[in-house]
Amino acid sequence: MKLTRRQFVVGSAAGAAGAAGIYELVDRLAGSSPARTVSPVRFREQHLLDGIRVVQENDVEVLVPPLHHRILTARVTVDPADARDAQRELERVLAGLDGDYAPSPAGLGVTVAWAGPYFERFVPAAARRLIPHDGRAGTSVLLDAERFPSDPPDTRLERNDVAILLRSAVQAHIDDAAKRIRATKLLAVTSVRRGFAGGGFDGGTSLPKQLAVAAQIPGADLIPDTAELFLGFTSTQRAGMGPGTIANFETLGYVDFRGSDYFRHGTHMHLSHIHEDVEAWYLNFDFDERVSTAFRPNLDVRQGTQTVRQGPKDVSTDADVHRQYRRTGQMGHSAAIQTTSRLLRDHVAADGTTYPKGTAVPVRADFNTLDNPFAWSERADEIGVLPAAGVHFVVFNPTGDDFRRNRRAMDGLLPGGKIEFEPRARGQGFNSVLSTTHRQNFLVPPRAHRSFPLAEV
Ligand code: HEM
Q1: CB neighbour list of residue 135: distance below 8 Å, 6 or more residues apart
Q2: When you count CB atoms within 10 A of the terminal residue's CB, does the N or C end of the chain come out lower?
Q3: Ligand 1 first shell, C-beta below 6 A
Q4: What is the C-alpha to C-alpha distance for residues 188 and 74, in angstroms, rounded to an integer?
Q5: Mean pLDDT, rounded, for 71-96
């Protein structure tokens, strides 16, 4: 794609300013922002967004993610003895944001997630007593982060206290929220992670494409112009995303709340940073092989298709994935994960909602980035000078073990048995161009307890 004069000027300026500088470009390329909205909608959950646009792509319903994303990870600065005051102070600021912005792309999504180090240091006794238990796995819902088979040995398992996910179609809303949260001085920010997704659903050139080209990412010219993500396939089709409150702790019945409703309407969040070798993906794999390893082998898809239907009837079972592998030596990203990410039978939740067999469970909120690996970090070796293509991977699951099952399946460790692959082998196509640098698991309390959870108990 030929750079417009404006893109060239801004791109080289941004290039000159390093990875972080590239984000100056975002506002200029993203065009006009939707009108700011405030609304009475107040989810009990922190991870849900209202007003998500749905478009039809290739006769498939696709959820349009917010254009801009930012994550602040942090360490709590106050002394545990002052946690109650800090709880009130942070809640005051978060309630202020609720009042100013609707929980929607046109407004602002704020998700405050807390990790093991916070619970161990600030509320150890209450945490031991009240953090929900995963009856299916026989563990806590909050697991320590681990390295998976296809992770490089130096994947960093992080120990932040808290992570704050900010999402909006309007960059200024995210800037405002980040400023107001940091102004509390309750948190020492350990990293800032920035990114974007989509922007090509109305036929225009998507933000990932424009930014990859402006940042001169190797292989950027090979990314389809309207691609939602660098690797060219739409990843937010409605059928592949957990609907409604399915990822809440309580919905699927895996979780024992141990006699307290404190964390009801809460969920589990996994956060990781993944480098993507865009050039290798497009040069080493032709379109058909990209489809085979992103979805499943022998899927007949028209050349250049970005959105590949993955409805309940398209779901692969354990036996399917093993058969596909025996026949082709290949395993599809979606097909393998579907053996753990889709309901195996109909489920009726306590609130009476019926989730049919084949319904997706995880709610993904991942987004592309040019951070290398972070836009800012308190560790100098985590702020790359040159932009690099990647994903800040964020997903909400009913439990930590539920995420673990998905991620292990992505490496061929299926519930019904292992697919014998060398980690990152070609047949695992997708994994061979991905490399995870950082990981951590978090507990997302319900909105009512989002600030310094359990400090008042
Ligand atoms: C750079 C990394 C990744 C990219 C580009 C990517 C892209 C995709 C794409 C294109 C799809 C199929 C689209 C859809 O059905 O909506 C998909 C599905 C999915 N991915 Fe990934 N993915 C990545 C990493 C991961 C990781 C690390 C996980 C963690 C387990 C994951 C979990 C899932 C899940 C749960 C689904 C839906 C499967 C289903 O139920 O159909 N992805 N991903």
Answers
A1: 254, 255, 256
A2: C
A3: 229, 231, 233, 235-237, 240, 274, 276, 294, 310, 333-334, 337-338, 341-342, 360, 362, 364, 391, 393, 395, 406-407, 410, 434
A4: 5
A5: 98
Residue 28 has pLDDT above 80, yes or no: no
Ligand 1 atom 13, closest CA: 235
Contacts 24+ apart (CB under 8 A), 121-124: 121/76, 121/80, 121/161, 122/76, 122/80, 122/83, 122/452, 122/454, 122/455, 123/83, 123/453, 123/454, 123/455, 123/457
The structure tokens listed for 232 are: 């060219």
Top mutation candidate among 238, 285, 333 for ligand 1, by most atoms within 8 Å of CB? 333
CB 162 within 8 A of CB 76: yes
Amino acid (1-letter code) at residue 70: R
Tell me the CA–centroid distance for residue 34 and ligand 1, in Å: 28
What the block records as the tokens of 226 is 């309207």
The residue nearest atom 30 of ligand 1, judged by CA position, is: 407
